[in-house]
Amino acid sequence: MKAFAGIDLGGTNIKFGIIDQNGDIIIYRTIPAFAADGARSLLERLKICGEELLLYCSDNDLKIPYLGVGSPGTVNSDTGTILGHSPNIPGWEGTEVARELGDYLNLPVFVGNDANLMAVAEVIFGAARGCKNVICTTIGTGIGGALIVNGALLTGNTYSAGEFGHVPIIKDGNDCSCGLKGCLEPYASAAGLLGLARELGSESTSAGAIEKRLKKNDDMTVKELFTFYKKSDPTSVLVVETQADYMASGLAGLVNLLNPEIVVIGGGVADAGGVKYIRLIEKFLKARCLADSIKSLRVVKAMLGNKAGFIGAAIQREELSEAG
Ligand SMILES: [Zn+2]
């Protein structure tokens, strides 16, 4: 039987598995990445994952055309070499992942950027199935982005397209992890959202849920913030609406530029916020877009969750235009 195998490399875990041609998961496993041990150690762990996948395929008569890998950072997806520095993986830049892993496993190996591959998964099997013009974004520790334009993934001139978190939204604004100022990420990521809660909570004179937590010096999680929001706690509503409007501002630029049919929003913050939060972003987004850009625009939550990375890695060489 034809199947696809993929590995999704994260700073904390390596997720890997096999899917069939309908996108149904045959096996799925997670092991710790120990990324701080550096590039060589990480490559050895990827080899172990690859061997396990190949063994499973041969034991179960599954035929895979290649092994796909998703990696954080900028990746030359034609050669499978890591181009960009990854702060969580010392020495990762310059690693020839496709060549090293391919030689070891004696199988073609393809490597792509993880955010791009999540979008590929959502287009082939998920929320954007069959769509040809798609904006995908994930809101979590960082803000990820990927663009599908006229049925093809946009990789850009030097493979770094789709860095949505680093779209500037405030002139001379807050410091961003990339070294620039005023990017979307410090305002709308999970940390940005909790920062807004602290800022607006300490300015507030009412005695709501956030103010009580700040008084006790208690840390708050994104999940808790959305629990308060869903109970209509006034400061929590203000915090979430402010962050959603930052997201909408960034997205509106992309929508007016690219005229997509669908915007897919995933990641931990979107999961915590649920459909109510996606509708809020949609409302602010549509208010900031040209009428012609949003005639049939849909704004939806990602469907494949934290498995999108390994699924997208597994099917990264499949034709997006045949999706659906
Ligand atoms: Zn930035």
Name its key features.
324 residues, alpha/beta, five-stranded mixed sheet, 10 helices, 12 strands, globular
As residue ranges, the low-confidence spans are none
Structural class: alpha/beta
**CA-based gyration radius:** 20 Å
The major pleated sheet works out as:
5 strands, mixed
Terminus-to-terminus distance: 21 Å
Number of β-strand runs: 12
For the biggest β-sheet, the strand order reads 3-2-1-4-7
Number of helices: 10
Query: How much strand content do the residues show?
Result: 15-25%
Helical content band:
25-40%
Give a brief description:
The chain is α/β, with parallel strands linked by helices.
List strands and helices in order, with pairings.
Blueprint: E1 3-9, E2 13-20, E3 25-32, H1 39-59, E4 67-71, E5 75-76, E6 81-82, H2 97-105, E7 109-113, H3 114-125, E8 134-139, E9 143-149, E10 152-153, H4 185-188, H5 190-203, H6 209-215, H7 222-230, H8 234-258, E11 262-266, H9 268-287, E12 298-301, H10 308-314
Parallel strand pairs: 1-4, 4-7, 8-11, 11-12
Antiparallel strand pairs: 1-2, 2-3, 5-6, 8-9, 9-10
The protein binds zinc ion (ZN).
